[in-house]
Amino acid sequence: MTKKKIILMASGSGSNVQQIYEYFKNSDAVEIAMIITNKQNAGVIARMEYAKIPILWIPKQYLNSEDFIELLKTADLIVLAGFLLKIPEQMAQVFDKKIINIHPSLLPKYGGKGMYGHFVHEAVIQNKEKESGITIHYVNQHYDEGQIIAQFQCEINDTDTPETLSKKIQNLEHLHFPKTIEMILMGV
């Protein structure tokens, strides 16, 4: 049986990349083929050194290149795990339903340009929401507007701060993102 190949893309510390790697590292069905980052000093590079997976740094302008698109075609699924650059329209079209993203809110609320990480959690707390969560969705040419695959919620209580909400959201991401990737790859 040929393993399904995943390419992970991240801009930050890489905690979701590490969770995905740990989930699949002994899998007979799925292989993490490569990690791609757009930041030369992204935390994901040091975090994932132990995994012995190729890590590629790409400058922003390379996202639209034919070489990069050909490289991505080697994967069955491209997973954005904290990748903060907007996917170019051409790339979104070439990889329709082949790129997924995780967002730290219940889309369509708190999505769009500039809405990531603590910016989302601050807005959610400021607006006195009673719940938040994560959304796993396909990527299209617009920030956070692709078809929703799955959402998972958590309650927000009166004592929550952006920092405590961030921890709740990260727990949801670590628990559900790898399982959802597996379901997509296995056609469940």
Considering the chains and any ligands shown, give keywords for the structure:
188 residues; alpha/beta; Rossmann fold; 7-stranded mixed sheet; 6 helices; 33% helix
Plain-language structure description:
- Helix 1 (15-24) packs parallel to helix 6 and helix 5 packs across helix 6 (162-185).
- Strands 3-2-1-4-5-6-7 form a seven-stranded mixed beta sheet, with helices on one face.
- The chain is α/β, with parallel strands linked by helices and 188 residues long.
- The radius of gyration is 16 Å and the shape is globular.
- Helix content is 33%, strand content 23%.
- The protein has a single domain, classed as 3-Layer(aba) Sandwich (Rossmann fold).
In brief, what are we looking at here?
With 188 residues, the chain is α/β, with parallel strands linked by helices. It has one domain: Rossmann fold (3-Layer(aba) Sandwich), CATH 3.40.50.170.
